[in-house]
Amino acid sequence: MDITNNFFSLQKKVNTLNSKTKIIVVTKNQSMSSIKQLLDIGHLDFGENRVQEAKVKWKDISNNFTGVKLHMIGKLQSNKATEAVKIFDFIHSLDNENLALKLFNAEFENQKKLKYFIQVNTGEEAQKSGIKISECEDFIDFCLYEKKLNIIGLMCLPPKFDDCSTHFRLLREISIKKKLKELSMGMSSDFKDGIENGSTYIRIGSLIFS
Questions:
Q1: Residue 69 DSSP one-character state
Q2: Where are the domains of the chain?
């Protein structure tokens, strides 16, 4: 497994599509020795799916590397909001009012502001997290104006067997309407489609750690 070469190969592909798109390296279940290879070449954006794993794995990293940004990309339970605020810089999975309230309170308690993506369930899948499309615009306003959360963009996970571009375009339309600048769209299997439809952040794991 040549992690750094995989990363540089990916970066080259991304740059040909849009050099401004940022790569979040998904480090779920990866060792710090593997992650350090990317830190050593100056990469700073990393994503984790679980609060507890991130807490253990990254607890000392800020002492050795400056500028690292941690992204919570998995489902966030409201009872983990306080820990999440302490650990992460970005959360990509804000999707309900109770969680928004918990995050608001946790920010106040910790005197820390995060950047948030609202996760939208563009496929209306019962088993998947994300705010419903019909509720999305009101929820954005609730987070922005009632809870004063720093909502910077939207995120989605298209249904596995659908045309992902259809969902990415829908998300982009909502973001334009609500004047949100960032889009978290695209993973290892569909990052090209994400970038072509305006993604500013892609979440990549297997293409790098394989």
A1: E
A2: 3-204
Look up residue 68 and give its two tokens: 């690292």
**What is the spatial distance between Cα 144 and Cα 112, in angstroms, rounded to a whole number?**
16
User: How many Å apart are CA 74 and CA 50, to the nearest integer?
Assistant: 6
Please provide the size of the chain in residues: 210
Q: Give the integer Cα–Cα distance in Å for 155 and 174.
A: 11
Q: Tell me the CA distances in angstroms from 61 to 46, 66, 203, one per residue in order.
A: 12, 8, 20
Q: Is 105 within 8 Å of 141 (Cβ atoms)?
A: no
State the pLDDT at residue 60.
75
What does pTM read for this prediction?
Answer: 0.96
Question: What is the CATH code of the structural domain delimited by 3-204?
Answer: 3.20.20.10
Residues of the chain with pLDDT under 70: 1, 62
For 61, counting Cβ atoms within 10 Å of its Cβ (0-12 exposed, 13-18 middle, 19+ buried), the class is: middle
